Amino acid sequence: MKNPGGGASLVTVATCNLNQWALDFDGNMERILRSCLKAKEHGASYRLGPELEICGYGCEDHFLEQDTFAHCWESLAELMERGATDGMLCDFGMPVLFGGVRYNCRVLVRDKKILLIRPKTAMADQGNYRESRYFTSFRGTMGQVEKLVLPGTFREKFQQATATFGIQYMLFGDGTTVGCESCEELWTPRSTHIELALQGVEIIGNGSGSYHELRKLNQRLELIVSATRKCGGVYLYANQRGCDGGRLYYDGGALIACNGRILAQASQFSLEDVEVITATVDLDDVRSYRASIPSIGIQAAISSRGCYVDDSDFCLVRGDYLSTPSIPLESLQVHISEEECCLGPACWLWDYLRRSGAAGFFLPLSGGADSSSVAAIVGAMCQLVTVAAQKDLNGQVAQDCRRVCRQELASWVPATSQELANIILHTAFMGTRNSSTKTTDRAKRLGDTIGSYHLSIPIGLMVEAVLKVFTLTTGMSPRFSSHGGTMTEDLAMQNIQARLRMVTAYLYAQLLPWVRSRSGFLLVLGSANVDEGLRGYMTKYDCSSADLNPIGAISKGDLKKMLIWASLAYGWDVLADVAEAPPTAELRPSTGENGVDEEHSQLDEEDMGMSYYELGLFGSLRKLSRCGPVSM
User: Fold this and answer.
1) How far is it, in rounded angstroms, from Cα 26 to Cα 358?
2) What angle (nearest 5°) sits at the alpha carbon of residue 597, between those of residues 593 and 603?
3) Catalytic residue from among 105, 183, 342, 382
4) SS3 276
5) Which of 38, 40, 120, 438 is catalytic?
């Protein structure tokens, strides 16, 4: 059916970033409801939500359980009962079991009636995605109509026994059309939005569960701008934000585009649980844009007519002649890679901390680039939390901050990020006779700058005690190679220092809250970068073994750039000094003339036999260019 033109064609649409938790059905439902209410406050007649928002995207093998599907239907029914869909078309994301097959679906609901259940046609299986483990791609053709029998509660409460299931779009009483494209489908060669546009669909919603990767927002922007520039139309993108219990951080970035221009953009890194953006669009602009491109008209004229769900009782156009279309944004908020390396892990750490029940973090701080990067990330987290808590004393961030910090005063929020860091971040320099004063000093200066509760823990006595036990039982005394020992002895002497640091870290993580008359435990933070993981340059069960490793996917080169950026952005000058210092493990006796008063003579790059620049290059060739040893 062709769409009519003329008359008032202004439509206000809304999309959102939601911080959903895997299997937190009650919490997820409340955040969805808040987003719907916010959308209505802005006069929206269509609201789009993220992929699998009702149960949370990261449920993993819980998607194999029937309970997950049952609870999703219960949550959807309660959303309908509480008025989320009253007077507004809502596009929810949830799993649906149909014909004995699990599908990742969009569920379109209006005024307590399920209008369409639209299954996803392309699963995301690259990178960290494993969707085909849990769901099946729908193979039906556009317009194929089937009926899904709804749970009994929908018949009892809403007098609806079945709902349309398939690849269709919505047609409303004012001629406005709305279609769905789900996450991965945008990235495929034969994207769904192309056929929808040729069918005359004007508004396309993409509910996504896209995790953060460096510069991925740039790719999303390119795809969405290109799609609407080529095909015309209004395109809404919604995304989950935050850590929903796994290793991934979903980075929001909700968007609204029209005819190749961005009308609204949500933040990529934020601690806000619910963020809604809206835009008012003139659908006559879409029709005029498409009609002005002859090639679109030729292909649309010969395309087969799809099947639509007719909802002629409802109009998306509200007839508010006082409204004006949204003006395209002159500039977009796109973070540089150094910011992404810092802010993404910072937001992820806060989500993990507030949901874990822990009282803070414990970080072995060596004064080198890796552990200092982790400290800087936690410091940035404290900056974000402090600003958000001060902005809204009764908001979710402020409440979580008081709970994590064990503060009973209802109005308490940290006055500075340093005050917050002193409560939740515990750093320790674990020195031996091989440690230099340079690294000792840098670690203390960084702890003081960020505000952490910093300790200097001499572990030399522990090392000597373990070696004495070895000598008593074997009658042999291992030596460093510089003292005449073999390489086997030398490595063992180095590794015992590193492994004792891990044991010490977990001891202090359990007991420091008790020492400070607080309850709870601390999460131990690791600091092994991706280059060292690729090379295998680490001691098993040393400080690379931890509860969380915020920099495990970041190269040394990117970390050094981040340190320099953070030193300027936050005024933490010591980070620039750290970035310039040569990387060293400080596990062997220094051979320098001035001993511990100079930079250590043991250098990582000499131990590895290659530079960090070369390691980063090899990693890039392997990951991005998919090269093996010969191709490199």
Assistant:
1) 22
2) 70
3) 183
4) strand
5) 120
**Cα angle vertex 245, ends 240, 246, to 5°?**
90
Measured in whole angstroms, the distance separating CA 445 from the mean position of its chain's CA atoms is 31
| Strands ordered across the beta sheet of 453-458 | 453-458, 425-431, 360-364, 522-524
Q: Are 180 and 49 in contact (CB under 8 A)?
A: no
CA distances to 381, 412, 516, 524 from 407, in Å: 19, 7, 14, 22
- Active site annotation includes 183: yes
Look at phi and psi of residue 595 and say left if phi exceeds 0, alpha if psi is from -120 to 50, else beta: left
Cβ partners under 8 Å of residue 123, min gap 6: 104, 129, 131, 132, 135, 136, 137, 184
Q: Which two tokens stand for residue 205?
A: 């919603």
Active-site residue, 51 included: yes
For the purposes of burial, counting CB atoms within 10 Å of the CB of 277, is it exposed (0-12), middle (13-18) or buried (19 or more)?
buried
Distance separating alpha carbons of residues 263 and 221, to the nearest angstrom = 12
Q: Is 627 a catalytic residue?
A: no
Q: Which of 16, 36, 51, 543 is catalytic?
A: 51
- Tell me the helices (H) and strands (E) count for the chain, helix number first: 20, 20
* pLDDT tens, residue by residue, 173-223: 999 999 999 999 999 999 999 999 999 999 999 999 999 999 999 999 999
* Residue 366 bears catalytic tag: yes
Three-state SS at 341: helix
Of residues 366, 371, 567, 590, which has the active-site annotation?
366
Could you read off the pLDDT of 562-612 as tens digits, one per residue?
Answer: 999 999 999 999 999 999 988 776 676 766 555 445 554 567 667 777 888
